[in-house]
Amino acid sequence: MQPVVRLRSIVCLLGRFPALAGLDLDAAAGEVVLLSGGNGAGKTTLLRLIAGLVAVHSGEAEVLGRDLTRDRRSHRRELALVGHESACYDDLTTRENVDFAVRAAGASPDVAADALEQLGLAPLADVAHGRLSTGQRRRLALAIALARGPKLLLLDEPHAGLDAEGRAVLDEVLAAASEDGRTVLLASHELDRTRALATREVVLTAGRAHGSLAAEPQPEPARQ
Amino acid sequence: MNLAQEVGLVAGKDLRIERRARVTLQQILPFGAIVLLLFAFALDPDRGVLRRVAPGLFWVAVLLAVLLAVSRAFTIETEHAARDGLRLSGLDPAAIFLGKAAAIAVQLVVLEALLAAGVVLLFDVSLSSIGPLVLATLAATVGLAATGTLYGVLAVGLRMRETLVPVLLLPVVSPVLLGATRAWEAAIDGAPSDAWPWVGVLSVFAVLAVGAGMLAFGPLLEEA
Amino acid sequence: MTLLKPAVGRALGWAALAALVVLALFGLWGAPPDDVQGDAQRLMYLHVPAAWIAYLAFGVTAFSSALWLWPRTRAAVWDRIAGSSAELGVLFTALTLMLGSLWGRPVWGVWWAWDARLVTTAVLLFLYLGYLALRKVPAAPEARAKRCAIAALIAFVDVPLVHFSVSWWRTLHQEATVFDPELKANIHGVMAFTLWWGVLAFTLVYVYLLDRRYRLESLEEDLEQRELEQAIAERVAGAGTPGRGSRKEEVPVG
Question: What superfamily in CATH does domain A5-88+150-211 come from?
Fold first, then answer.
């Protein structure tokens, strides 16, 4: 089966700095791959590269069946990225932000309501984004990501800023995602929690990946 | 979603944000009015002079207001990395361009109507021949909004955005200032037939600006 | 590396210099003084060629930008030509305006006149300055090239619009446009020759300077490229560029 992510000898530049320098990585459907490593190792850049937000300087990159060196836009509909920022608008309420993102992605608005429920944001539906705490914004970004129904979920330190309840919700979400056959790539410093959830761990150091780089296809989720 | 729906979505988002934050109404409008007042201080208070140059002063004030409106339109996209959200959303970049430009145009029209009232009151101008006046204003507004949106996205990721956009935008829109002022003068001086050719020039500019924006917005958004 | 072979470039430099000397001779002595304007009119032999180069350079910038933007012809050379030509263009545009001023003052008593050509040239100056400001913004070469190329093309389309609007504005006002740099009524013979020679000389100067500027830009980019490749190679080899990135090695989980 085709891996969802296939990267070979990737070099990626941020300005003139080689943030990724000769990186290899594979990921198969249903895997939860933990990307660990210190600050500046390249985790964020890697996730953004897979999302198609930054260009591949050299190397091979195939994500969701598309060659990123040729076209790094068309695959975006099938993935979702939760970065350090929520990508929302301060003057819109939670519900309005999710509605906008969901409609932009072409999904149905009911999905938005479900996602808000799932992440415990329903009570905050009419609160302006500018008034939310960091943890709440994180959850909102996650709700939006899930509402898009992505095949590939890219999470950049999702536990950061979440309170205990938020973390519990996030762990449930991660477990459920894997069961649904989604692929999850998760960059994190919270190694204790995430190691339990991950199917595999890859360590990033100075722009390269170490550890189990090959995809480990997960069993197909039971279909009803 | 088809293009029109996407445009409506983006424009609706921007206008809803404006309705909440009221930046155009509470900051940009007073700015425009103050500019008109300052012109009155700077020039001969003898009413005759002000009446003669009123159209030019009006459009200079509008041009300066456009700089603020464009700046605001893209500031909301840089808070919380909403730009990334737009890129990942799957929206057609041309639709994002048209939506943002439309929202700016709507805000400008409201601004212009109020400033025009100010001009009539302060400079003792009588606005006859409403037809060519309104059409000239609309064509000019579309041209200004489209060009502004284009340069706004061109500079969106850059540190020096605030000073770059004016330097880039103002020379390019000088034909709009020229044409709109002449059209207003013709309409006010009771020679409306002289205004129509200027309406033509403004319309050509508007069409070119919209076309250029639809082509260039996508590539520029990706480089941000 | 360079647009012209080094030997050709050098020869061109000498030719340009020689042409300028000849221009000076003709301009100052060879051509007769104008009946109406006197010796001040000799500034035309500099002003008109400078204007020609100002617009030529602009066209070159726009055309190179278009070639860069078109995927099939995209290559760094076009971006470098666009940037180099713009720098020369801004110089010649400023020169055109200054010479126009110097010429206008003794002849018509004004430092400036609001005719279509002058105003359009002034707007051109500002368009150039905006382009150069954009070029100075630090960014990855591709991103910078794309932004500048689009800005250049928009400016290129804008210039005719500006010219048309202004010229129409001025004719409507029905003011006698006394200031006409190309009052060609008396230009024939030696004067015409000198004028055309001026255009030729300035073109040689432009091409020579373009080549030199291009070479400089090309060398700078080569240096940056080499530093970049070295940085990449070091990082790929894990040769330890200290500062960025931790060196923690974790035991992978199966």
Answer: P-loop containing nucleotide triphosphate hydrolases (3.40.50.300)
